[in-house]
Write a structure and sequence with these properties.
The complex is a heterodimer. Chain A is α/β, with parallel strands linked by helices. In chain A, 42% of the residues lie in helices and 10% in strands. Chain A folds into 2 domains: 119 residues, Rossmann fold; 125 residues, 3-Layer(aba) Sandwich (Rossmann fold), CATH 3.40.50. Chain A has a 4-stranded parallel β-sheet with strand order 2-1-3-4. In chain A, helix 6 links the parallel strand 3 and strand 4. Chain A is globular and about 50 Å long. Chain B is an all-alpha fold. Chain B is 62% helix and 0% strand. Chain B is elongated. The chains are: A alpha/beta, B mainly alpha. The interface between A and B is large, with 73 and 69 residues.
């Protein structure tokens, strides 16, 4: 589905610094956004949005390292702080002031847990960036795919929603579409986890009756949504797996807020 | 006169015993590690006013919220009546507030009666939710014999107390109509006037019933007070300090361990000297005394309502984890540690711990850290903090993380990512 006419150019901080330039914002891609095939598409779409509105940005490239989130949630505070202090050194060496992340976990960790270790930055999640751009009139939903008549629902990622009280920003990107936003029974502060947080992404679940992502997808099916909007690469994996498991790939599409924005604007 | 002496003895004994047992709970709580959560007092008072006093987090479940509100308001307001009962009991007076308060007194008593009947109704509804409708929230592996009985005892005691109160008023009302002895016209009885016809017409019998109910009501209240430290009902007191000391940071933020920071800084920079040399402490929590006093206060505040467990994704999908059990286990273990101190002295160590003897590893590893339990708790209890502390112990002290997580740690150390990808490939996403 990717539109290949839009060529993305991604400068690294090292390249920018060599040219004596400072970008407006650092795009913190995250490990999933860098390596996971599905999430890579979202990463490219975030770049397209940044380029489309003319924000000067850069990424750390190979100088980026895991924020340490899964290590911390799993109880490995040593590893977390090693990662954090190393990352803070890199960020500070480039005098980074503002960061946009493509992942609520990276967002939460850098925003909330790095300051205590000496890393102070203004951090936003890409859904907040999209909301700001919509509010400023720089982003609309025109010139691209129409979502008209589609039933769209939004799955709140725990570390964006309950973790940081961000419920409206991602919904803003959906509200400007000419479509019906339907909420699941468990949404916003009552939202049900996708099952990947707390390092669950990297292990098999404990024995139980069913997997958490299946429970969540059943809720999506119950409201007859055709599109599930996500805002987290881990949720993306879990929800997509759930859709596959239920054999609903024809009926339900899982898309990131950034992908929906890119599609609606034909970028 | 004898009645006054007996009353004063009962009152003094009740207050003394309560203070002693509440003191034990306080001592147990303070066995936890120190933590400073007294900053930003203005914000804390506001949270306490909103969450504990205003019960704002209860409204997510409207039926329970309304019924609980009746009992809560009934409890607080009917305490004004208890004040009068205390004074009457000590000085041998009868309805001492009736003269100075005048017309207001009738209004107050009438109000108490309406509240009393609402409390009665709410208790009956709650009992039927637990025992007839059998809401799922009130069952679960941790809801064994005692927690179930505890809940029923509390509701039955409250029903008894309200019944004594209304019967006492009914008898008083009838005696007032008979102009019997000191039963002067005082108060209004919108509820008990309906009970009055059920009572005998003989003035002496009525006076006996009035006195009997008066004594049963007040001794019942004092007995109930002494039941609190042994019961989940202790939440009526601890909800207030517990919400005052709430976590103020965003829910997603986990604490950074200062002891680890020193070691990591020393590792990254050999010339680093920590500001204050840290004592050798255990990383994370194996037993309750490794937790903070706030964690332990939360354990005693928990009223086992099960809102946390009913929204826990792990529990919903049939895993062993139940956040309510985490809190109840913590409370039961710290109580056990406290009892050991009372019996065997403060240096006594039994061979038990919170980990494994109470909370299994399977429970701990099932958590997704989604904060649903924290969000759901009407009194801001945080089961997730205890789970995290115990994971820290398992990982950093025992090195016993599940194998797949150890792989993830290894990847992060070697490739800077939780997966086995080479860091050199980090920009591959640019070549679609």
């Amino acid at each position: 589905m990717e539109n290949s006419t839009f060529e993305i150019k991604v400068p690294t901080m090292a390249e920018m610094a060599a040219q004596g330039k400072t970008p407006e914002i650092l795009f913190w891609v995250g490990c999933a956004g860098s390596f996971d095939q599905r999430a890579q598409k979202i990463t490219r779409d975030i770049c397209k949005i940044l380029q489309h509105v003319g924000i000067s940005y850069a990424v750390l490239g190979t100088e980026e390292s895991c924020t340490g989130d899964p290590a911390k949630r799993a109880g490995n505070e040593f590893l977390f702080q090693m990662q954090a202090l190393t990352n803070i050194q890199v960020l500070d060496s480039y005098h980074i002031k503002k960061i946009v992340t493509g992942c609520p976990h990276c967002f939460n960790t850098i925003k909330n847990e790095y300051p205590g270790l000496g890393g102070n930055y203004e951090v936003i999640h890409h859904s907040q960036l999209i909301q700001q751009l919509i509010d400023e009139g720089k982003l609309k939903a025109e010139g691209g795919e129409s979502f008209k008549g589609k039933r769209i629902t939004y799955h709140d990622p725990c570390y964006l929603g309950r973790g940081n009280n961000i419920y409206e920003a991602p919904r803003k990107a959906l509200e400007i579409l000419d479509t019906e936003l339907v909420e699941m029974k468990r949404c916003k502060s009552n939202g049900l986890c996708c099952g990947a947080g707390g390092a669950q992404m990297f292990k098999e679940p404990e024995p139980g009756k069913k997997d958490i992502n299946i429970e969540r997808i059943e809720e999506v099916i119950a409201i007859n949504a055709q599109v599930v909007a996500a805002a987290c690469p881990f949720c993306m994996t879990m929800l997509s797996d759930g859709v596959k498991n239920k054999d609903k790939e024809q009926e339900i599409t899982v898309l990131d807020i950034a992908e929906i924005t890119v599609r609606a604007n034909g970028l | 006169m004898i009645a006054q002496v007996i009353f004063i003895i009962i009152l003094a004994t009740a207050v003394y015993l309560f203070a002693k047992n509440a003191g034990k709970v306080r001592r147990n709580i303070l066995l936890g590690k120190g933590i400073n959560c007294s900053d930003q007092p203005a914000k804390r008072w506001k949270i306490m006013a909103k969450v504990a006093l205003g019960q704002t987090k209860m409204v997510k479940r409207p039926i329970a919220a309304i019924m609980h509100f009746f009992i809560y308001v009934g409890f607080i307001i009917i305490n004004l009546e208890v004040l009068e009962i205390m004074i009457d009991g000590i000085f041998g007076s009868h309805r001492i507030f009736s003269k100075p308060l005048g017309g207001l007194y009738g209004l107050l008593i009438g109000g108490f009666e309406l509240l009393a009947i609402l409390v009665l109704i709410a208790c009956v509804v709650f009992l039927s939710r637990r025992n007839i409708i059998r809401l799922k929230r009130f069952s679960g592996i941790e809801m064994t014999e005692w927690p179930k009985s505890d809940a029923n005892y509390i509701l039955c005691i409250e029903i008894c107390l309200m019944t004594f109160f209304l019967t006492m008023n009914a008898a008083d009302y009838k005696l007032q109509l008979l102009h019997f002895r000191h039963y002067i016209k005082a108060g209004s009885f919108p509820v008990s006037s309906f009970i009055a016809p059920l009572l005998p017409n003989n003035a002496n019998s009525l006076a006996f019933i009035e006195r009997l109910c008066w004594w049963l009501h007040i001794t019942g209240i004092l007995a109930f007070l002494n039941y609190l430290p042994y019961s989940k009902h202790f939440h009526i007191l601890l909800a207030f300090p517990n919400t005052y000391y709430s976590k103020l940071e965003p829910k997603g933020e986990f604490s950074n361990m200062a002891s680890v920071t020193n070691e990591v800084k020393a590792m990254l920079d050999p010339s680093f000297i920590p500001e204050s040399p840290t004592e050798t402490i255990r990383f994370g929590a194996k037993d309750v005394t490794d937790l903070t006093w706030k964690n332990l206060m939360e354990a005693y505040t928990c009223t086992e309502c099960g809102r946390c467990t009913s929204v826990c994704p792990a529990n919903i999908t049939g895993k062993l984890l139940s956040p309510r059990k985490i809190m109840m286990d913590t409370r039961d273990r710290i109580t056990e540690v406290g009892n050991n101190i009372d019996k065997h002295g403060k240096d006594y160590k039994d061979d038990k711990a919170l980990l494994d003897n109470y909370i299994s590893r399977e429970e701990l590893w099932a958590c997704t850290t989604c904060n649903a339990c924290v969000e759901a708790c009407p009194v801001n209890i945080n089961p997730l903090e205890i789970i995290t502390e115990m994971r820290r112990y398992i990982v950093m002290e025992e090195s016993k993380a599940p194998a797949s997580l150890n792989n993830m740690f290894g990847n992060m150390e070697n490739n800077s990512a939780p997966w086995k990808y080479s860091n050199a490939d980090r920009m591959n996403w640019t070549n679609s």
